[in-house]
């Protein structure tokens, strides 16, 4: 295959069978590798959908400055889309973001501002928005196009399993993946269960209080604006230790370089599978990003702490 540009590589990500992790189950367990997107994250889908929606509405052209405060994967995705489209991108990052991220984003053409903390990043983005005559704010946490992008993800799952899927298990980040996938299945294949995974230490989706956890890339201390529990069948709580044990297994037993939220998703899928002991229809979990984004955090030590208990 020859893609005409980098944006054509977004989506149509593969499913991989987790043969070692699922060897004791009656049903296959598949992982959808959003890491196969160009910047190794599902946010590529989101960034492209947001920009294309803005283009259709006449909100973005070559004179527009796109401004987003973020500490997450959307920064790389927006940088890629803006580079491919020829748009100017201004990112505002908190100062705890690793230096390599800042350098890479600048290398991709983004104008990067660094502030003290995330609250100041939002405030600085507001200031910058008043400094340019034409500005577009993606606002990924509240932009409906982000959830709509993941309806395509649901269609891919249905297509690639030939309709043989009993449940899709999704770690909750901005809520876009859960809501988009859930919406498509509820409208088109309502028998497929859509399962959200949240940190057990911070069960805000089920009315609990926010708490500290270390499952990076998911589990905001509030219910995301985009999260629609009307399209979610179950919410499964996964602790930090459960997520990292599953992540260690994915690395050691399957050879998959996925991020901590992927460990939570697989742990949730395994927990759900135990309640469906007589079912043989496959379960799909989502791997939203790559572990390489987290090498300068305590993720690797947590993985290594979980590894000794695993079989060789």
From TrEMBL:
The reactions it catalyses are: O-acetyl-L-serine + hydrogen sulfide = L-cysteine + acetate
Specify the Tryptophan synthase beta chain-like PALP domain's residue ranges: 9-279
Known EC number: 2.5.1.47
- In terms of superkingdom, the source organism counts as Bacteria
The reply to whether Amino-acid biosynthesis figures as a keyword in the UniProt entry is yes
| UniProt cross-references to Gene3D superfamilies, sorted A to Z | 3.40.50.1100
The protein's required cofactor(s) are namely: pyridoxal 5'-phosphate
What one GO molecular function would you report for this record?
A: cysteine synthase activity
- EC category name: transferase
Q: Where are the transmembrane segments?
A: none
**Which UniProt keywords are given for this protein, alphabetically ordered?**
Amino-acid biosynthesis, Cysteine biosynthesis, Pyridoxal phosphate, Transferase
Keyword Manganese among UniProt keywords: no
Q: Which family does it belong to?
A: Belongs to the cysteine synthase/cystathionine beta-synthase family.
This chain belongs to the protein called cysteine synthase
